[in-house]
Specification:
Shape: elongated
Order of helices and strands: EEHEEEEEEEEE
Strand order of the largest sheet: 2-1-3
Helix content: under 10%
Radius of gyration: 18 Å
Strand content: 25-35%
Structural class: mainly beta
Largest sheet: 3 strands, antiparallel
Number of helices: 1
Amino acid sequence: MAHYAILDINDIVTQVIVGKDENEPLPDGYDSWEQYYGGLRTSYNTYGNQHNNNGTPFRGNYAGIGYKYDNHFDVFISPQPFTSWKLNYTTFLWEAPIPQPANIEGYEWVWSEINKEWIQVAIPSA
């Protein structure tokens, strides 16, 4: 099975559907399954411009609702999480201005856009 991202007029993903694989026969009058579905194929196995099964990455990231399709780079890019974060044009992922510190058991890090820093918070025990 293959996945297809349906875009609005601003190239924002509005829906991701499951469809036919590219090697399956096409209905008459269609040149591709992308044409048939009216969307762009996206790879469930691609994240950060890497394929998780050692395959060839496809379109940067698996598309999600709200992602933008960048026609110039032929990739899907998630919404920018914070205004201070910058897009990495190798991975097509957003990066904080400073790297997240290493995890410590029982804690997690949360980005503070006001302070432009990572804040350590305790994880509530179950």
